[in-house]
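sanity check this fold:
=====
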Amino acid sequence: MALGQSGSAQNTEVPKRPFGKTGLQVSVMGVGGYHLGTAPSQEVATQIVHEAIDAGINFFDCAWEYHEGESEARLGKALKGKRDQVILMTKVCTHGRDKKVAMQQLEESLTRLGTDHLDVWQIHEVVYDNDPDKIFAPNGAIEALDEAKKQGKVRFVGFTGHKDPDIHLKMLSHNYPFDTVQMPLNVLDGTYARSFERLVLPQLVSRGIAPLGMKSLCGSGEPVLNGAYTAHEGLRYAMSVPGVAVTISGMESVEVLHQNLEVARGFTPLAASQMAAMRDRAHFYASDGRFELFKTTKKYDGELGREQHGFPLSADLPL
């Protein structure tokens, strides 16, 4: 259910923060591209994008594989005439394949998005234990990031993943000059054993890498549906995590955008004591990972990654 908006809230912009050491300022909330592909139509997707920009949101996320390119195509059409108002990010989806595949995907992404450059290009879904080895192997995806920057088609680079902090730390151990890193940041993550907030975030802050938060409601909204916390509380917590640059939220309808803007407009972070109280209240739900199945199972891993790593597709898994 969408929250109502007061007149004063509607006139308040979404605040911005430093985007790591890039020199850019990024809105505290960003629009997730996956859900633009699940919006009922291009018209609705465009309305979401335009209203978000008008409210002060300037970060837009996407990925080459989202809905087989439909999400990028919708975002590109929605940004026509507004490209210079946003920080545009999409992701390369090689899943262990080589530099040539990555560069071809970059050209396809640029075409779909209707732009000659990306502000951020991230390696998507680094969730398998051997992904860092594949990414940093000769002729791997890292070489594509370097080449894309050299060609002027990408300004900043990073990687994303939702599985295990140890995989993120293995990526960081190569000391590559990443500008951004995307990861789950939510109330449950704060106390769960595989906590990105506790294990990865401090590393990013110390290096000046912009942390991008995702899965504030665990991707499925299950903590909200089961009473661990409300959607409003979950978003506020994620956006309050010290050091996070932007919290990316999926929005498949204008109603959800309005609900998110109720939190994001004029946002001020929760106090440390309030965040601790939320973690304590939700600790029972966090302790066994029941609502963070993207960490403990393959349920939320993408089909293309499964295929490249030789895992069954989701339709072939047992119930």
Q: What stands out?
A: The chain has a mean pLDDT of 95.
